[in-house]
Amino acid sequence: EDGSGMYTLFSGLYRLLTEKVQYQILVLGLDYAGKSTYKEQCERIFSKSAKLEGKDLHIDEKMTPTVGLNIGKLEIGRVKLLLWDLGGQEGLRVIWQNYYAEAHAIVYIVDSCDNERLNVARKELRSVLADDTVKGAPILLLANKQDKPNARDDKYINTYFGMESKEMEGRITKVLGISALKGTNVKESIEWLVDVIPKCPRTDRIKLESL
């Protein structure tokens, strides 16, 4: 009897120590911003199976835009991240709000070369932030396609999107220049999320609501 009790205690402790914590990350942005490429690059970098280090990511730059939802799964230590890559075409953006409540953080990807649609991208981000259900969620703004010579840098995107304006006070935010295609700063972006999400009061609230 004592033995079985001890076994239960140790198996419980083992489960506690090895159990993975799961967080849901919304990956948003206009069509052709590079959301699916980002998701695939993340999976490549944090892949446990294949030894992909040093290998180029073979992704068609003219990838068909996502319709609906693509899910990427990453494991970093005891943390499991689900990347919800949602379609960014105009007619699909209305579905974004259906996923806000369950998101621990939001990654918003911008095509830094698409000057004609930067204003639209900014408007859509403001629309996301205006929704009460994203309150308290860390916002990671990624200025993608930094491998292109005509890309606006992260400082420009930071200013243009008003990430340091009064409206953003009290929010947990970061702006990072990346190349989803080449992998530049992709690892750093995920590491930032893994660092900030557990510290957010929103994270505990989502946990309680899911019980």
Keywords, please?
211 residues; alpha/beta; Rossmann fold; 32% helix
Note the gap between the termini. Answer: 32 Å
Biggest beta sheet attributes: 6 strands, mixed
Strand order of the largest sheet: 2-3-1-4-5-6
Average pLDDT score: 87
- Helix/strand class: alpha/beta
Number of strands: 6
Report what the structure shows:
Pfam families: Arf. Mg(2+) binds at residues 36, 66. One of its GO terms (cellular component) is Golgi apparatus. Keywords: GTP-binding, Magnesium, Metal-binding, Nucleotide-binding. GTP binds at residues 29-36, 88, 144-147. There is one protein chain. The chain is α/β, with parallel strands linked by helices. The protein has a single domain, classed as 3-Layer(aba) Sandwich (Rossmann fold), CATH 3.40.50.300. The protein contains six helices and six strands. The protein has helices at 2-18, 35-45, 118-129, 154-160, 186-196, 201-210; strands at 21-28, 69-76, 79-86, 105-111, 139-144, 173-177. The protein has a six-stranded mixed sheet with strand order 2-3-1-4-5-6, with helices on both faces. A hairpin with a 2-residue loop joins strand 2 and strand 3. The chain is globular, with a radius of gyration of 19 Å.
